[in-house]
């Protein structure tokens, strides 16, 4: 049984169908990236998964149970937004502990849980700082720690590295994989960056205009692109990046 299964998902905005009978599965502990250009429907899928948008039609199953009509609080998923959505008047500890204090299951242990998670993501020496005193990468780790503290079964990421510089993105990629391995969390990652998807993912779902163009391992996509769009958007773009790098290295 898949950890998450999406069946025949359709979403209509203003009489325009932006998701066309989307169907896919995510396995327990898998890192799945949803890759595509702006406007392809990838963020709409994420917001439907977390419960922020209702589907026009279709079914969402988690561990075989229909969660399509459940509110976000009942889905046991976490989300890390692009802008981190941190409380600027709170410290790192306050941000991570905040949601725990309103949850009956975690309330009595909220401080201990928060401190442990902060240590595990390498932010203990920054525990008393407010967000404005942190780098972009550190703020992102706070956002991830806050999500992990609630012990979600699935974490959704909405292009969380798009605002970071290239060096910080490279560092955080490695840290994100370590966090996934450490917590054995299933992750669904939204991105428009081909290199990022290939560096992080067990499988990649390539989207265009509200449809799945290909869902495969990185190796499978490289060896057998399913459509001309996949070849152009994924492989050709990766080749351009590689060729630019090789050209630079030859002249260095």
Protein topology:
Elements: E1 4-13, E2 16-26, E3 31-35, H1 42-50, E4 57-62, E5 65-66, E6 77-80, H2 92-98, H3 110-120, H4 136-149, E7 154-158, H5 166-183, E8 186-191, H6 194-200, E9 203-208, E10 211-216, H7 218-223, H8 228-250
Parallel strand pairs: 3-8, 3-9, 6-7, 7-8
Antiparallel strand pairs: 1-2, 1-4, 4-5, 9-10
Description of the molecule:
With 252 residues, the chain is α/β, with parallel strands linked by helices. The relative contact order is 0.16. It has a six-stranded mixed beta sheet, sandwiched between helices. It has helices at residues 42-50, 92-98, 110-120, 136-149, 166-183, 194-200, 218-223, 228-250, and strands at 4-13, 16-26, 31-35, 57-62, 65-66, 77-80, 154-158, 186-191, 203-208, 211-216. It has one domain: P-loop containing nucleotide triphosphate hydrolases (Rossmann fold), CATH 3.40.50. The chain is built from eight helices and ten strands. The termini are far apart.
Gyration radius (Cα, Å) is 19 Å
Chain-averaged pLDDT: 92
Lateral arrangement of strands in the main beta sheet? 6-7-8-3-9-10
Overall tally of domains: 1
Distance between the termini: 51 Å
CATH homologous superfamily annotation: P-loop containing nucleotide triphosphate hydrolases
Q: N-to-C SSE series?
A: EEEHEEEHHHEHEHEEHH
CATH architectural name: 3-Layer(aba) Sandwich
- Biggest pleated sheet: 6 strands, mixed
What general form does the structure show? Answer: globular
């Amino acid at each position: 049984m898949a950890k998450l299964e999406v069946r025949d998902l359709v979403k209509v905005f203003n009489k325009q169908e932006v998701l066309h009978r989307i169907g896919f599965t995510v396995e327990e502990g898998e890192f799945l990236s949803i890759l595509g250009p702006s406007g392809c429907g990838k963020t709409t899928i994420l917001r439907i998964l977390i419960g922020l948008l209702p589907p026009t039609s279709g079914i969402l199953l988690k561990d075989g149970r229909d969660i399509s009509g459940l509110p976000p609080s009942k889905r046991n998923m976490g989300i890390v937004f692009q802008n981190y959505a941190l409380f600027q008047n709170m410290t790192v500890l306050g941000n991570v502990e905040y949601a725990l204090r309103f949850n009956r299951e975690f309330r009595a242990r909220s401080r201990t849980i928060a401190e442990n998670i902060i240590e595990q993501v390498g932010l203990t020496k920054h525990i008393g700082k407010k967000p404005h005193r942190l780098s972009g990468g550190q703020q992102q780790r706070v956002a991830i720690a806050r999500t992990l503290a609630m012990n979600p079964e699935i974490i959704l990421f909405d292009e969380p590295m798009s605002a970071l510089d290239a060096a910080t993105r490279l560092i955080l990629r490695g840290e994100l994989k370590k966090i996934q391995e450490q917590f054995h969390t299933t992750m669904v990652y939204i991105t428009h960056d081909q290199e990022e998807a290939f560096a992080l993912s067990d499988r990649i779902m390539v989207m265009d205009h509200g449809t799945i163009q290909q869902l495969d391992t990185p190796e499978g996509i490289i060896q057998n692109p399913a459509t001309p769009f996949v070849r152009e958007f994924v492989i050709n773009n990766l080749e351009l990046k590689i060729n630019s790098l090789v050209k630079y290295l030859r002249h260095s």
